[in-house]
């Protein structure tokens, strides 16, 4: 059967992609950010996942205020980099795994999660920056990817508990798929940041580090944190962190921390990153 072996959490700051694409990764400002992922690139090259389920939020590239799915799963064979206003990123087209994605959609809906099925989807920096951080700049991505988009842009977003339980349902769906596949789940977004208003540029390091601690050791407690706490402590865009709970819910209750990285600043936010392996992997 297919199995989930590990989870990756990472920020998906658009400026990180721009720095990499424009050859600025070695500059003093950006070098510490990319250095924090060198261990991660080595790990994923050794892990060799067949499929990544990548949880992210669309930034008005594929969806808009005209259509706002709470949870959407990409079931196509491929996903092109989105044009976010300055042209698509110069990265490979994302190869999907439509068979597993359709199986997941069916199982999740029967498990009472209302998934929006998407058969045509351009993917923006929310999805491509995490791939770049983990794989660098290959001619093609070395594994297949299932995009899972979450609404954390328009109120109301799903609760942390709903996201955590979706992660558990994803694990059940994957483990009921008959093909022998190694699957890694990515949760992306965050950490603390706010892009507008009087608190623009907010970074709350204490909150970020406490979130990382609790996500690892007591994800059930973290899943109970209400939206208002994220907004108050981590800024209006800090709510993206609920997507990390989907990744965490797909793993064992007890996990092994392979790598942890935190850096301030990257553009106007903090960068957080975790690699967690199932205890039995």
Report what the structure shows.
There is one protein chain. By secondary structure, the chain is an alpha/beta fold. The protein has one domain: Protocatechuate 4,5-dioxygenase, Chain B (3-Layer(aba) Sandwich), CATH 3.40.830. It is built from ten helices and ten strands. It has helices at 14-21, 31-35, 38-47, 98-110, 125-135, 160-175, 205-217, 219-223, 227-234, 242-249, and strands at 3-10, 51-56, 71-74, 78-79, 94-95, 116-118, 144-150, 182-188, 255-266, 269-278. Strand 9 and strand 10 (269-278) form a beta hairpin. It is globular. The mean pLDDT is 96.
List keywords for this structure.
281 residues; eight-stranded mixed sheet; alpha/beta; single chain; two-stranded antiparallel sheet
**What value does the Rg take, in angstroms?**
17 Å
Helix/strand/pairing category: alpha/beta
Whole-number tally of structural domains: 1
Which residue ranges are poorly predicted, with pLDDT under 50 across at least 5 consecutive positions?
none
Q: What portion of residues belong to β-strands? A: 15-25%
- What top-tier CATH class fits best? Alpha Beta
Strand order of the largest sheet: 6-3-7-2-8-1-10-9
Tell me about the largest β-sheet.
8 strands, mixed
Superfamily at the CATH H level? LigB-like
Give the termini distance in whole angstroms. Answer: 15 Å
User: Residue-averaged pLDDT, rounded?
Assistant: 96
The string of secondary-structure elements, in order, is EHHHEEEEHEHEHEHHHHEE
Number of helices: 10
